[in-house]
Specification:
single chain, alpha+beta, 6-stranded antiparallel barrel, about 20% helix
């Protein structure tokens, strides 16, 4: 578990690929390894990975990345000297300055455009999997390359009947449609945050790892289960009307019993 508050930026010092995956060696400031142990979890650009070895002089550590993780994240695009966001797993004394982050990347998103707003920079993202947009809400949380950020604007694109969610590439305009009618959201990086995360140095067409707020997923599952239960009850009892009508009816009955 992580908070989405990036502790430091590391540098890829070596990258060894094989059919079974990729091994990354990352240099880091001393403090990040002050309490390190083999097998510890660490967030690298928002991806939870396991420390397989580490050194204190010079400070660096190694992680293994599976082919599945390379396909689902932007880690496969890293090269020697690439910079990455780093955060250790939370401890009992960690302050929860961001939000609950699992380090399980939901999708990657493409930066559609970057605009200056005073000293801040506004980034617009279009997800590869548009299904995650239902969990992205204005003023809600979203994790971008491991950094907990606040959503400032959202534009949902709802596929028409029979239309699959579009896979977004590096193209996209600046208009409110976010590039050919695709869904998007925006976040704003203040000057301080720009100095602390790798996202600030990215440009239109670059990809970022995205993890949506897990609370939305739990709420969705709970609500879906409730409505499915009502539907099954209606089928067994031969009740007519929609699920919503039966839900309202149940609420009225419970109220009248009081």
């Amino acid at each position: 578990m992580f908070t989405g508050i990036v502790e430091c930026i590391g540098t890829i010092t070596s990258l060894n690929s094989s059919p079974s995956g990729t091994t990354l060696t990352i240099s880091t400031p001393d403090f990040l390894l002050s309490d390190a142990h083999l097998g510890d979890s660490i967030s690298i650009n928002g991806t939870c990975l396991t420390i397989t070895s580490f050194n204190h002089s010079p400070p660096s550590f190694t992680v293994g990345v599976s082919p599945e993780t390379l396909r689902r994240t932007n880690l496969g695009r890293l090269s020697q000297d690439s910079h990455v966001n780093l955060e250790r797993a939370v401890s009992a004394s960690t302050r929860m300055g961001g939000h609950f982050v699992q380090g399980h990347v939901d999708t990657v998103a493409t930066i559609l455009n970057v605009e200056e707003d005073g000293e801040a920079r506004v980034f617009r993202f279009a997800p590869r999997d548009e299904g995650v947009l239902r969990y992205v809400v204005e003023k809600g949380y979203v994790t971008i390359d491991g950094a907990s950020l606040t959503v400032t604007r959202v534009s949902d694109h709802v596929p028409a009947a029979g239309e699959e969610g579009e896979k977004v590439g590096a193209k996209g305009g600046k208009g409110d449609e976010g590039g050919e009618g695709r869904g998007w959201w925006e976040v704003m990086l203040i000057a301080y945050t720009q100095e602390k995360v790798v996202t600030a140095g990215k440009k239109a067409g670059d990809e970022v790892n995205v993890e949506v707020d897990m609370v939305g997923k739990y709420v969705e599952k709970s609500v879906r289960g409730y409505f499915e239960g009502l539907e099954k009850e209606g089928e067994k009892g031969g009740e007519g009307g929609s699920v919503l009508e039966r839900m309202v009816g149940r609420m009225v009955e419970e109220r009248m019993k009081r």
